[in-house]
Amino acid sequence: MPGSPQRTTTVLFAIIVVFLTLSLVLYPKEGFEAGIAGLKLFWDVVFPSLLPFFILSEIMLGVGVVHALGILLEPLMRPLFSVPGVGAFALSMGLAAGYPMDAVITAKFRKSKMCSRVEGERLLAFTNTADPYFLLGAVAVGMFRNAGIGMLLLIAHYIGAFLVGILFKLYGRGTQEKAEAAPPVIRGNLFTRAYQELLRARQEDGRPISQLLGDAVNDSIKTLLMICGFIIFFAVIIKVLTLSGIIPLLALPVMALFKLIGIDVSLVQPFLAGIFEIDIGAAQAAATDAVLIQQLIVVSFIVAWSGLSVHAQIASVLTGTDIRFSPYLVARVLHGIFAAIATVVLYNWGVGQTIATVSAPVAPSTLAVAAAEPTTAARWLASLYALKNWFLLIGGITLFSVALYLSRRMKIVVFKTRMNNK
């Protein structure tokens, strides 16, 4: 017999589901159009951007690259964030592909027993970030029509994530359990240990390359179809809640809070929309007539919070693991607060001086002039992209040299072992 709290939750959830269903029946045309918009967002943006990263992450796990990275980066990730070295892989893939890539990788780590439950919760707390292309392209250029805004939001967003990671280092210390498959103790040559771990993980996986590729594509498509369903569902929910008057009702206490802290009340509606879905909320905030810094504060919080749509995707990805969802939610609130504060500090420190104050979307003709005269931040970003090929070339040569050295070193060790046995 379920307890009283469980009965209350069940009844409340049933009422909400019935209400949403009736609302959708009353507004079928609007719900259909919202669903089409959500599907278009997934097909045009999410699917092509995330699929390559999902497939590559599966392959890197199967080949053993992630295990080798765990050995190499253990001395960095453990002191900073109290997570295994493999956490650097989740962090880097999360930075490159955005959410929910980090959750997918963290869940795989936990299922593979490469981290403990507490370590997985810590990892998920600070690796849940937006990708640079979303902030620099979709938000800055697409919504605000200003490239300089993207640099400010990007720096503030990652500062907030880093602070959450440092804070969560203290989380679960008294009750932390050891990982079932703790990373090996690093002794001697770090690169040799990483090479040995790469070979060990590949041998343990055992799948042929053809099967590994097929499984990677199959699992990635399944995960993306789940994400597609959540995007469409929440696009419809936001539309229905707005038409039924629920969101305007929720705006009353938020409006009082915004007046108290001195933020334009025109940002209340975008803020509430962003609580549900990040893209809709950020676009609405950029379209208001509020002061630029207040727009940026709200957008920073929305992007760091990431929206209930992303939260639902994360919760679904974590199914089958013992990683708890509540620490993730606390981390998102903290990330939103830290990112908003960092936005104010960076703006007042002069980062905002490179940003032209834009209170309304810029006309196409104005955009053409702006494109001819890029901002300081835009020129700096372009220089980073110009250096990208050099970094890739030097990194490739370095990796090849290290692999060649380790390969010869291992051959010498094997040869000496055989000679001693004789």
Topology overview:
Layout: H1 4-26, H2 28-63, H3 65-81, H4 87-97, H5 101-111, H6 117-127, H7 132-143, H8 147-168, H9 190-205, H10 209-244, H11 246-261, H12 268-276, H13 278-286, H14 292-305, H15 307-317, H16 326-348, H17 364-372, H18 376-421
Helix pairs in contact: 2-10, 3-9, 4-5, 5-6, 6-8, 6-16, 7-8, 8-14, 8-16, 10-15, 11-12, 12-13, 12-14, 13-14, 14-16
**Structurally, how many domains make up the residues?**
2
Task: Kindly state the number of beta strands.
Answer: 0
In which range does the helix fraction lie? over 70%
**Ends apart, CA distance between termini:** 71 Å
N to C succession of SSEs: HHHHHHHHHHHHHHHHHH
State which percent range the strand residues make up.
Answer: under 5%
Radius of gyration: 24 Å
Sketch the major β-sheet: none
Protein name: Sporulation integral membrane protein YlbJ
InterPro entries: Spore_IM_YlbJ (IPR014226)
Keywords: Membrane, Transmembrane, Transmembrane helix
Transmembrane segments: 12-29, 41-69, 81-102, 123-143, 149-168, 224-250, 290-308, 328-347, 384-406
Question: Which structural traits does this protein have?
Answer:
single chain; 422 residues; mainly alpha; 2 domains; Sporulation integral membrane protein YlbJ; transmembrane helix; membrane; transmembrane; Spore_IM_YlbJ
Could you characterize what this model shows?
Helices cover 79% and strands 0% of the residues. By secondary structure, it is mainly α. The protein folds into two domains: 23-178 and 188-362, no CATH class; 374-422. The radius of gyration is 24 Å and the shape is globular. This is Sporulation integral membrane protein YlbJ.
